[in-house]
């Protein structure tokens, strides 16, 4: 199978939203009048972001999911994406599963594959997504990192730390019961981008971002961009791990001090963290219900710079957690 057969067979589908899709030198996108394009790019590299033996269906899903998560963080509506793919060989079973995982998620979000590049080389997947956000009265409705203000509430969506739990089990640093491994592995390998929640938070959240490297590290980006500080409640946070009621925690299979670490600094969560003024609590609840995605209020923005952790009694908890950094 040659390069062009491969593209035709696995990555070419009729364009419905785009003015022109795969096949020419450029794709053509016609943004809806009164909107801005939101653009983001994420790369997945074998050995760094996934293991060589990962299920190709899950990999196709995840490659697009992490990009859709960026659109979600901005409150953008997905439109289209491009796929730059380096493959060691044209393995048909692999390509069939990969493209099924990729295009299944794409269809679920109405996000069209409109072009890309295909080359032989070490497995590497780079996707650029395009979305749109409305401009109302000359003002972009995009959610940014820079809008958090003193007194705002801090929220996170869904659950945190489950992906890290699976990663530790796959690395062999702890042993999980099979059902628990399957549950957490699903979160690691097939994250759910919170696209509907991001859109529902337009005009409600003051700042937002998606969590890829761990809550504490990622939240710092909001604090820095907004010129503020924050206090987080670790008692609420530690229960954000989906498996917090699982007997494995009681029996010590998962060390209890690790529970909080995985939530605060686990990485690969692809949930949204966002801020909103206290006056918007009802609107946040409505957005969460509309999107069908639970959210939890875990702290508060403060004028004093820095990130502080407290326990249930408001007593300081030392912050010894470090989040992921490719070059640290
Ligand atoms: P060019 O020679 O202009 O770089 P290519 O030969 O690389 O174009 O690609 C031919 C067409 O196939 C283009 O429309 C390109 O966008 C598309 N394409 C290439 N690789 C992929 C891919 N992995 N997924 C989707 N479209 C692709
Ligand atoms: Mg090319």
What is the residue-averaged pLDDT? 94
How many individual helices?
Answer: 11
Count of spatially separate domains:
2
In spatial order, strands of the major sheet run 7-9-6-10-8-11-12
In whole angstroms, how far apart are the ends?
A: 41 Å
CATH class of the largest domain: Alpha Beta
Portion in helices: 25-40%
Sheet having the most strands: 7 strands, mixed
SSE string, helices as H and strands as E: HEHEHEEEEHHHEHEHHHEHEEE
CATH superfamily of the largest domain: PurM-like C-terminal domain
Class derived from helix and strand content: alpha+beta
Low confidence ranges: none
CATH names the topology of the largest domain as Phosphoribosyl-aminoimidazole Synthetase, Chain A, domain 2
Bound molecules: adenosine-5'-diphosphate, magnesium ion
Principal-axes shape call: globular
Using DSSP, what is the number of strands?
A: 12
EC number: 2.7.4.16
Family: Belongs to the thiamine-monophosphate kinase family.
GO molecular function: thiamine-phosphate kinase activity
Function: Catalyzes the ATP-dependent phosphorylation of thiamine-monophosphate (TMP) to form thiamine-pyrophosphate (TPP), the active form of vitamin B1.
Give me a quick take on this structure:
The chain has 328 residues and is α+β, with helices and mostly antiparallel strands. It is built from eleven helices and twelve strands. Helix 2 packs parallel to helix 3 and helix 4 (162-171) packs across helix 5.
Descriptive terms for the model:
single chain, 328 residues, alpha+beta, 60s Ribosomal Protein L30, Chain: A, Phosphoribosyl-aminoimidazole Synthetase, Chain A, domain 2, seven-stranded mixed β-sheet, five-stranded mixed β-sheet, 12 strands, 35% helix, 24% strand, binds adenosine-5'-diphosphate, binds magnesium ion, thiamine-phosphate kinase activity, metal-binding
């Amino acid at each position: 199978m040659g390069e062009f057969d491969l593209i035709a067979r696995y990555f070419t589908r009729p364009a419905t939203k785009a003015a022109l899709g795969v096949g020419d030198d450029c794709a053509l996108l016609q943004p809806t009048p009164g909107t801005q394009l939101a653009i983001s790019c994420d790369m997945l590299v074998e050995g760094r972001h996934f293991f060589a033996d990962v299920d190709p269906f899950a990999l196709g899903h995840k490659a697009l999911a992490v990009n859709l998560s960026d659109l979600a963080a901005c409150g953008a509506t997905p439109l289209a994406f491009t796929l730059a793919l380096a493959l060691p060989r044209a393995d048909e079973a692999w390509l069939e599963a990969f493209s099924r995982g990729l295009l299944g998620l794409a269809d679920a979000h109405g996000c069209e594959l409109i072009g890309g590049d295909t080359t032989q080389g070490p497995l590497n997947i780079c996707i650029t997504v395009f979305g749109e956000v409305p401009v109302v009265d000359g003002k972009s409705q995009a959610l940014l990192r820079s809008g958090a203000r003193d007194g705002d509430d801090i929220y996170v969506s869904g659950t945190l730390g489950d992906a890290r739990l699976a990663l530790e089990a796959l690395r062999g640093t702890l042993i999980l019961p099979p059902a628990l491994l399957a549950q957490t592995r699903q979160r690691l390998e097939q994250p759910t981008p919170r696209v509907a929640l991001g859109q529902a938070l337009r005009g409600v959240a003051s700042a937002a971002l998606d969590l890829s490297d761990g809550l504490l590290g990622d939240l710092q980006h909001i604090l820095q961009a907004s010129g503020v500080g924050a206090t987080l409640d670790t008692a609420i946070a530690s229960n954000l791990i989906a498996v917090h009621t699982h007997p494995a925690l009681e029996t010590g299979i998962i060390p209890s001090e690790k529970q909080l670490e995985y939530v605060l600094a686990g990485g690969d969560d692809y949930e949204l963290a966002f801020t909103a003024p206290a006056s918007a609590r009802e609107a946040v609840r409505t957005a969460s219900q509309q999107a069908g995605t639970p959210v939890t209020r875990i702290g508060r923005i403060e004028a004093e710079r820095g990130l502080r952790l407290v326990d249930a009694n408001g007593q300081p908890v030392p912050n010894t957690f470090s989040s992921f950094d490719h070059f640290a």
